[in-house]
Design goal:
This protein is α/β, with parallel strands linked by helices. It has twelve helices and nine strands. The protein has a five-stranded parallel sheet. Bound molecules: phosphoric acid mono(formamide)ester and norvaline.
């Protein structure tokens, strides 16, 4: 049976431990310039319905560095743009590839693609979540601060975004406390919060969210596909910018994460993004190391 990675619930806490250990080992191998060929002869297809820099490059680099090959397709330049169904596209790709990564809009589209695909499908960002990014984020926390278990992570701004939602979901597998600092209207759905049990605390006060936190995270205020709402979002989220004054309320030595791309002066100040507590460049690099481990798991079992 093929195994997809569409949401964090598709793997278990035990799987994540093995995955992170493998990602640490693969990162160390890469730093020693060792060649790993665990995916030689395997092929990955990346399908993008939205823009990407990191996801595109990190998946390509991961696959090539493990000895595999990759084809990247944008829906705009494929027959998808001319109305070929997502199901037909998935069936055709299954004949060529050992794994597919799909970045799309609605989760119905992602689920329909996965259902029609005979090979494992990875969610490369959808409206409902960005699970591969969360893996890189928590791997970075472990690398910088030790075990994620028992840590307090504060997420500021648009907590209903794909990043906010995946962080809420992650509390069920990684044993951290999550504090969401956002105005009314930017909270994840009540059902998702209920699933997380008592691990998530929501406040409209950004200082309360950040106080004593080990990790402070934010994401853009206007996600891809929401551009028409940008002016309203700027106005309503104004006051939730992660700046130096807010960061000073976190634990000394706290780290800052942002999945990038960032908008300096909107959700995060330039001083914080480029400052000594920022772990964002490691976070971006770690996408590749963690995805290598994920590709091995889904392709090799
Ligand atoms: N963080 C992230 O997914 O970046 P891209 O949109 O550049 O892939
Ligand atoms: N929430 C952002 C993440 C970008 C990687 C978006 O969906 O645009």
């Amino acid at each position: 049976m093929k195994r997809d990675f569409l949401t964090l619930s598709d793997l278990t806490e035990a799987d994540y431990r093995v995955l992170f250990d493998r990602a640490h080992a693969l990162k160390a191998s890469r730093k020693r310039k060792e060649v790993v060929t665990s995916l030689a002869g395997r092929h990955l297809v990346l399908v993008f319905e939205k823009a990407s820099t990191r996801t595109h490059l990190s998946f390509e680099a991961a696959m090539y560095q493990l000895g595999g090959t990759v084809t990247t397709l944008s829906s705009a330049s494929s027959q998808i743009a001319r109305g070929e169904t997502i199901e037909d596209t998935a069936r055709v790709i299954s004949g060529y590839a050992d794994c597919v990564m799909f970045r799309t809009f609605g989760d119905e589209r992602l689920n329909a693609f996965a259902k029609a695909s005979a090979v494992p499908v990875i969610n490369g960002l959808s409206e409902g979540g960005h699970p591969v990014q969360i893996l890189a984020d928590l791997f970075t926390v472990e690398e910088r601060l030790g075990s994620v278990k028992g840590k307090t992570i504060a997420f500021l701004g648009d907590c209903a975004s794909n990043m906010g939602r995946s962080f809420v979901e992650a509390t069920r597998f990684f044993g951290f406390e999550l504090r969401l600092g956002c105005p009314e209207g930017y909270r994840p759905a009540a059902a998702l919060l209920a699933e997380a049990g008592g691990r998530v605390h929501v406040t409209a006060d950004p200082a309360e969210a950040v106080r004593g936190a080990d990790v402070v995270v934010t994401d853009v205020w206007t996600s891809m596909g929401q551009e028409a709402e940008s002016a309203r979002r700027m106005k309503e989220l104004h006051g939730y910018q992660l700046d130096e004054a807010l960061l000073a309320k976190a634990k000394p030595g706290a780290i800052v994460l942002h999945c990038l791309p960032a908008h300096r002066g909107e959700e995060i100040s330039a001083g914080v993004l480029d400052g000594p507590q920022s772990a964002v460049w490691d976070e971006a690099e770690n996408r590749m190391h963690v995805q290598k481990a994920l590709l091995e798991k889904l392709i090799l079992g």
